[in-house]
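Title: Prediction job returns without error message
Component: structure pipeline
Severity: low
Priority: P3
Assignee: unassigned

Description:
Job completed but the reporter wants confirmation the result is attached to the right record. Sequence as submitted:
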Amino acid sequence: MTPGMTHIKPRQLGAEIFQVSTGSSEPIYRQLIEQLRRLQAGGQIVAGDAMPSVRDVASELGVNPMTVSKAYSMLEAEGLLVRRRGLGMEVAAQAKGHSDLASRLELLRPSLERIALEASQLELDAKSVITLLTSILKGK
C-alpha cells in the first residue's frame, strides 16, 4: 500500500441478512437470490462486502447447504457475487446496479403480482389492500 492510502476492510455480512419462507411456493434458493438482488439494489450491500459462508447461512436458516450454494453460484454467474479463493464470496465490484427507481420497482413486481392475485382470490378491494400495505410500510 502506498503512503497516505488507507485500506478499508470489507464488511463481513452475517447470515441474518436472509429470511426464508418455507411455506412459500417460491423455491428457497430463488428467495435467497431475490433478497440479495434487492439488498444490492437498495444499497444495503455494496461491492467488497464479504458474504456469510454457505455453512453459516444454511445453519441459520435451517436449510440444506446445497440450496445456499446453488443461490450463490447463480448469483456468481449473474455477476452479482465473485468468489475469492480462500476468502469465500463477496459482492462484485462490477455488480450490475439497479439503483434507479424504475429498476428497483421492477424487482418488487413479482411480489406485488402475487399479492394482487391473493387479494383477488380473497375478493379484497384495492383500497383495503393498499391501506394495509401502507400500514405495513409505516411499521404499524
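Comment from assignee: result matches the submitted record. The mean pLDDT is 86.
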